[in-house]
């Protein structure tokens, strides 16, 4: 059974701070990892994907992957109130594979 | 970013009734996914559909569910006899443009309420 685990939160950070979101996965065959942002009542919106061990940066976002530890994280620098949402971690295999999602971590950024 | 439109945005149906949820990609796609999310729970995979055939399905996708591409563009998910526990957000998704290890882009979803 493939599982992706996340702390449900909420994670509360002040505006301008760094938010750190974490995720672990059970299937060592997983090769691709995704972070989605989901506002209440809306669909998941892709923020970043990462396939290789190490860090990947895109603007204020940095994804980190450690396949040995089966661990994925997302750092959000200079957090803004508009970043307040639930962040979903997902894992997939190669090709057009299905995604296994975690339950998500709620992030609250206070002004 | 690929786009996909879902209709209706909200569907209320009585238990035991059939519902059809629709998905229309902006550009031509051969590969589709359906996911669902029960309120407060994980996004769960239902089925993937490639070139007019089911590619993969989950345990949730039982005989009550079916998928079709009736006219070459719309992509439908049918639930034959809805149950209360079918109440959820249903998302259609399409792969991104990156090929191997590709991501999924979601439509805005259909909220299904079974009463």
Structure description:
By secondary structure, chain A is an all-beta fold. Helices cover 0% and strands 54% of the residues of chain A. Chain A is built from no helices and 11 strands. Chain A is globular and about 40 Å long. Chain A starts with a strand and ends with a strand. Chain B has 115 residues and is mostly beta strands. Chain B is 0% helix and 52% strand. Chain B has strands spanning 4-7, 10-13, 19-25, 31-37, 43-50, 53-57, 65-68, 75-79, 88-95, 104-106, 110-114. The interface between A and B is medium-sized, with 26 and 29 residues.
Task: Draw up the topology in text.
The complex is a heterodimer of chains A (about 110) and B (about 120).
Chain A: E1 4-5, E2 11-14, E3 19-25, E4 32-38, E5 45-50, E6 54-58, E7 61-66, E8 71-76, E9 85-92, E10 99-101, E11 105-110
Parallel strand pairs in A: 2-11
Antiparallel strand pairs in A: 1-3, 3-8, 4-5, 4-9, 6-7, 7-8, 9-10, 9-11
Chain B: E1 4-7, E2 10-13, E3 19-25, E4 31-37, E5 43-50, E6 53-57, E7 65-68, E8 75-79, E9 88-95, E10 104-106, E11 110-114
Parallel strand pairs in B: 2-11
Antiparallel strand pairs in B: 1-3, 3-8, 4-5, 4-9, 5-6, 7-8, 9-10, 9-11
Inertia-based shape of chain B: globular
In DSSP terms, counting alpha (H) and pi (I) runs of 4 or more, how many helices of chain A?
Answer: 0
The quaternary state of the protein chains shown equals heterodimer
Could you tell me the radius of gyration of chain B in angstroms?
Answer: 13 Å
Q: State the order of secondary-structure elements of chain B, H for helix, E for strand.
A: EEEEEEEEEEE
Number of helices of chain B: 0
Please report the distance between the alpha carbons of the first and last residues of chain A: 41 Å
> Low-confidence parts of chain B, pLDDT < 50 over ≥5 residues?
none
Mean pLDDT over the full residue set of chain B: 89
Shape of chain A: globular
Report, as a whole number of angstroms, the end-to-end distance of chain B: 36 Å
H and E string of chain A:
EEEEEEEEEEE
Largest sheet report of chain A: 6 strands, mixed
Major sheet characteristics of chain B: 7 strands, mixed
CA radius of gyration of chain A: 13 Å
* Count of strand segments of chain B: 11
Estimate the strand proportion of chain B.
over 45%
Number of strands of chain A: 11
